[in-house]
């Protein structure tokens, strides 16, 4: 089968030549296993850290010469597990390749992924891990309350477009977002439940928050860290809550350069205002998944939320999709679609 391999670890910013599409044999199908043809593959910011050798992660790092992996949705072509017959749609962790042999026990969604309920891409986005991340962050990590003013960074991305819409449906009074560029900011207000949005490249976020939320914010859903986290710490009201979800602005380079240590010094705000900052990894919260799927599928069916994906075609363009995501080339969930082969 064709796979995307890491050729070498990037030196500085990753380049297309750090990746290559190669042919690899598939192992024979064992008892309890499935042969899955991948239809959609998830492109995730966390892959950036996994390209490095030094980064400590909650999952393994990639190895030069070996295939990448990641979340994917595929259809079972052959099965040696009676409970998961051919034709079943499953999600699993062996993306970045056309076909995969995997244990049926390592799949998720068998029998639940219904293209009649929501299109297949949505099952990797709004109804998948990124939608779930937004849901966990809002409901469990910051325990969103009706009346809250909520600020979300990377608001036009997969987690951000979900978080804005969920916050609104969960009773937030005001939802604010930041994104790169005026077009994304306009879309946030038009389509994704935001009351107002600011372009973090055009204006210091501290100024934008002072303008958009002069009375302060109650909740910050942090996807980027750095300057935006520092700005949010200033805007938070006493007793405010922060969900530390990711740090898009902190990839690569010297992590304790002058600007970054200045941002960290803003943590005195957390002391002064008795803030709660809580980091989380979504996979620790799987107990919430049935509730999440039921509620979000309901909102989708009622037409109360919008699922948005940016879809790139072909395995040979998958590495480019990752580089594009890191540079903000996506609106909503970034996916790679594999053709029928
Ligand atoms: P997105 O779809 O949000 O894509 C990443 C976005 O980050 C880009 O579109 C870009 O948008 C923005 N970005 C890139 N560089 C910067 C920068 N320097 N400053 C500000 N924004 C930047 O990705 P996901 O929705 O998949 O992930 C969002 C966040 O959630 C990530 O930090 C990810 O690591 C985290 N995450 C955490 C999980 C957890 O369990 N804790 C699970 C899943 C995701 P723009 O054009 O606006 O710059």
TrEMBL record:
InterPro entries documented for this protein: ADH-like_C (IPR013149), ADH_N_2 (IPR041694), ER (IPR020843), GroES-like_sf (IPR011032), MDR_fam (IPR045010), NAD(P)-bd_dom_sf (IPR036291)
Protein keywords: Oxidoreductase
Highest rank taxon of the organism: Bacteria
Alphabetized Pfam families for the sequence: ADH_N_2, ADH_zinc_N
Alphabetized GO MF terms: oxidoreductase activity, acting on the CH-CH group of donors, NAD or NADP as acceptor
Domain Enoyl reductase (ER): 14-336
Name the UniProt record assigns to this protein: NADP-dependent oxidoreductase
Species: Streptomyces lacrimifluminis
């Amino acid at each position: 089968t064709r796979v995307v391999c890491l050729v070498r670890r990037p030196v500085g910013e990753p380049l297309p030549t750090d990746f290559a599409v190669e042919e690899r044999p598939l192992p024979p199908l064992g008892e309890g296993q499935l042969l899955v043809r991948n239809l959609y593959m998830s492109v995730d910011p966390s892959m950036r850290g996994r390209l490095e050798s030094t980064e400590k992660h909650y999952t393994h790092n990639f190895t030069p010469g070996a295939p990448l992996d990641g979340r994917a949705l595929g259809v079972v072509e052959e099965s040696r597990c009676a409970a998961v017959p051919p034709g079943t749609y499953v999600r699993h962790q062996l993306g970045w390749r056309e076909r995969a042999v995997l244990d049926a026990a390592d799949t998720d969604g068998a029998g639940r992924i219904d293209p009649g309920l929501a299109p297949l891409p949505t099952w990797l986005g709004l109804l998948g891990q990124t939608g779930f991340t937004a849901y966990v962050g809002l409901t469990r990590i910051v325990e969103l309350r009706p009346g809250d003013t909520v600020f979300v960074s990377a608001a036009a991305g997969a987690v951000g477009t979900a978080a804005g819409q969920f916050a609104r449906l969960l009773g937030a009074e005001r939802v604010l977002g930041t994104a790169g560029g005026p077009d994304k900011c306009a879309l946030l207000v038009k389509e994704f439940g935001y009351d107002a949005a600011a372009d973090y490249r055009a204006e210091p976020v501290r100024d934008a928050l002072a303008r958009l939320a002069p009375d302060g914010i109650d909740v910050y859903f942090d996807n980027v860290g750095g300057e935006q986290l520092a700005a949010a710490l200033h805007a938070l009201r006493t007793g405010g809550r922060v969900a530390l979800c990711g740090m898009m602005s902190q990839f690569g380079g010297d992590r304790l350069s002058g600007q970054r240590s200045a941002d960290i010094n803003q943590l005195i705000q957390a002391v002064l205002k008795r803030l709660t900052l809580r980091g989380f990894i979504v996979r620790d919260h799987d107990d919430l998944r049935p509730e999440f799927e039921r509620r979000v599928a309901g909102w989708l069916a009622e037409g109360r939320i919008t699922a948005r994906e940016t879809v790139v075609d072909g395995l040979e363009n998958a590495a480019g999709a990752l580089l594009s995501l890191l540079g903000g080339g996506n609106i909503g969930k970034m996916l790679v679609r594999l053709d029928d082969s």
